[in-house]
Amino acid sequence: MKLFALGVMTTIIMGCSSVPAQSPVELIGHTQSGKASFYAMKFQLRKTASGERFNQMAKTAAHRSLPFGTRVKVTNLSNDKSVIVKINDRGPFIKGRIIDLSRSAFSVVANPDVGIIPVSIEVVK
Fold first, then answer.
1. What does the DSSP 8-state code read for residue 5?
2. Could you check whether the bond before residue 92 is cis, i.e. omega within 30 degrees of 0?
3. Cα 110 off chain centre by
4. C-alpha to C-alpha distance for 8 and 120, rounded to whole angstroms
5. What domains can you pick out in the chain, each with its CATH number?
6. Strand partners, 101
7. Integer distance in angstroms from the first to the last C-alpha of the chain?
């Protein structure tokens, strides 16, 4: 009976685990176009969805579905400037926006006074 209970528990635990649909390696070269914005200062030091503390000075970003730790090249389509960021949060959840950048990352590709920019993103790592 103990062996049966152990088997049932193992099955339940295995059923609750999940496997990502795609690993970051399989996503290399994946591109997407849309709008980018940046985080408000009120999010400084708050926990991100990955568990890291948000840092406006780091080159990080939020994306709705890319795995945490994925490196993405973000290119401003208005001036062709680009920056590489690490995905460590989820969002943005506003129609048309595909990525939320830290202020530091946004500043590399555009003046923050602009607020929202057209971008393309490409998974690089």
1. H
2. yes
3. 19
4. 47
5. 25-123 (2.40.40.10)
6. 38, 61
7. 48
Q: What is the amino acid identity at position 87?
A: I
Dump pLDDT digits (tens) for 66-122.
999 999 999 999 999 999 999 999 999 999 999 999 999 999 999 999 999 999 999
Please give the single-letter amino acid code of residue 103.
Answer: R
* C-alpha dihedral, 89 to 92 to 98 to 102, nearest 10°: -60
For residues 6 and 14, give the distance between their C-alpha atoms in angstroms, rounded to a whole number: 12
Residue type, 43: F
Query: Sign (positive/negative) of CA torsion 50, 54, 55, 56?
Result: positive
pTM of the model: 0.77
Q: How many CB atoms neighbour CB 101 within 10 A?
A: 28
CB 108 within 8 A of CB 81: yes
Q: Residue 44, exposed/middle/buried by CB under 10 A (0-12, 13-18, 19+)? A: middle
Amino acid at 15: G
What is the reported pLDDT for 7?
46
**Interatomic CA distance for residues 92 and 9, integer angstroms:** 38
